[in-house]
Design a protein that fits this description.
This protein is about 25% helix and about 20% strand. The chain is of the alpha+beta class and about 475 residues long. β15 and β16 (about 290-295) form a beta hairpin.
């Protein structure tokens, strides 16, 4: 090497806290009927690619949810496969047309499918049934399929279900339609999955999204929400600050029936770490392009996880919810759930697309944590403050002598200021610099009897940002001549 002046650039001397990033660490919990290995049950899995998730988790809701989050800009996405207990069956089959044939489902569906089988010929079993099918309510169709003569079954690829045909003849255009019941997991299995997720010590989870919808009544969702709330409270005791998202509404009900069920079931529920969502929508799958019927929790969770903690999930400047094609329940039109602390989706006159109405938490009236923004900001602040304060755990702290004119026996002023500055810097770098809060104050108690109690009291106060949920404007005409005359 020829003579040269070579620098060595150092880093880390300024004590700046690492930025926590815009997105949140989210874990999706749910059944995976086609899981590649049973050893992966109740295991926190990490995914950065939808196809890898599909290979590992198999076709189904869990892989679809992971893909949706990834497509929304959340990366990585964590998933915890829970045990599969029930569901996957066919709902009521509706035959439309004059044909005498029948179609039924066997097998266990790995997702919620809006199945339509349409007959393409008059041929019956003997000649070979000809048909096409849709899994998303007729938005997308397969090619025409003709079975061999005398064949009665068709295995639908990647779904877990089989069509069984009968009858000597059919009518062209006849349809057989039904919706499959979502694969389900028990509340006990949800708790086991959450416990396993929180037991690992490598990822600070901030959001857990539970893929479990009530089948017959919203009281089922109340039980799930209570289980999730209990798990999150236990986690908080272990310094894990996390919120949960669950679904509260039964699918395929009228707006009023669904709303009555949810509001009745959750009237007395209180949980500052739980968000309950209500309503369903059509969402485009990033995996196969189909338009599946999904609870609004899916795109709500993806929106939350992809945005800063203090951002209102209904912020119009962030754009409409990606992938949502239509709503089955529109809060703007119905106005039935928002006042009951249920997170919903809405249309906004003058804006294209669909939006989160409000990010409600199931906190009691008067709580600081009625909105998800406060919950997420405080959780992130707790994580940062604790990490900064760990620096002083078991530290020797000089105290003022007995001759001190102010706070004799209290912590030395210089030491107190060092601690305050260290904690404040960490919080400001992550929260204030990114406008997640308006102000941060840190104060070490100068009067505490540290010698006797071995305890250092520190007070931290955050001033949140405000939100323009209501905008009032005054508009009218103006005549310059009249103004001059006046």
């Amino acid at each position: 090497m020829i003579p040269q002046v070579n620098p060595t650039i150092q880093d880390g001397a300024l004590g700046i806290a690492p930025a926590s990033g815009v997105q949140s660490n989210v874990a999706i919990v749910g059944p995976a009927p086609q899981l590649s290995s049973s050893t992966l049950l109740n295991t926190l899995l990490t995914f950065t690619d939808a196809q890898v998730a599909l290979t590992t988790l198999g076709r189904g809701m869990l892989a679809q949810a992971v893909a949706l989050y990834l497509a929304s800009g959340v990366n990585p996405v964590y998933a915890v496969p829970s045990a599969f207990d029930s569901g996957g069956t066919a709902g009521t089959i509706t035959h439309t047309g004059a044909g005498s044939g029948t179609v039924t489902q066997t097998g266990t569906a790995n997702d919620v499918y809006e199945v339509i089988v349409k007959m393409a010929s008059t041929a019956g079993i003997a000649a070979g049934v000809s048909f096409l099918y849709s899994l998303d309510g007729g938005n997308h169709w397969s090619n025409t399929i003709t079975l061999a003569a005398a064949a009665t079954t068709y295995v639908v690829p990647n779904t877990g279900i089989t069509f069984t045909f009968s009858g000597s003849s059919n009518a062209i255009g006849d349809t057989y339609a039904w919706q499959t019941v979502a694969p389900a997991t028990s509340d006990a299995n949800v708790t086991a999955a959450l416990t396993a997720a929180f037991a690992q010590g490598t990822v600070d989870l901030e959001i857990v999204h539970v893929l479990k919808t009530p089948v017959t009544a919203s009281s089922e969702a109340f039980s799930t929400a209570a289980a999730v709330s209990a798990a999150l409270t236990t986690a908080e005791g272990r310094f894990i600050y996390c919120m949960g998202i669950v679904d509260g509404g039964v699918d395929n009900q009228s707006a009023s029936t669904m709303a009555t069920g949810i509001t009745t079931a959750f009237a007395n529920f209180a949980g500052t770490r739980v968000m309950v969502c209500g309503g369903y929508e059509k969402v485009t799958s990033p995996i196969d392009g189909n338009l599946y019927r999904r609870p609004v929790s899916w795109t709500t969770g993806a929106r939350l996880a992809s945005k800063p903690p203090a951002e209102h999930p209904g912020r119009t400047a962030s754009g409409a919810l990606p992938g949502v094609a239509s709503l089955y329940y529109d809060e703007d039109a119905s106005l039935l759930l928002d006042t009951s602390r249920i997170t919903t989706h809405r249309t906004i006159r003058g804006a294209q697309g669909y939006y989160v109405t409000r990010g409600w938490m199931m906190a009691s009236s008067g709580s600081d944590y009625q909105y998800v923004m406060a919950r997420r900001v405080m959780d992130r602040a707790c994580r940062i403050a604790r990490r900064r304060l760990i620096r002083f755990l078991n530290e020797s702290l000089p105290v003022n002598p007995s001759t001190a004119t102010v706070n004799p026996g209290g912590i030395d002023e210089i030491t107190a200021r060092v601690i305050e500055a260290w904690v404040l810097r960490g919080l400001e770098d992550v929260l204030l610099a990114t406008q997640q809060v308006s102000e941060i104050r840190v104060s070490v108690d100068r009067t505490a009897n540290i010698i006797s109690t071995f305890t250092l009291p520190v007070s931290i106060r955050l001033t949140p940002v405000g939100y323009a949920e209501s905008i009032q404007y005054i508009i009218g005409f103006y005549n310059p001549i009249l103004a001059i005359a006046a």
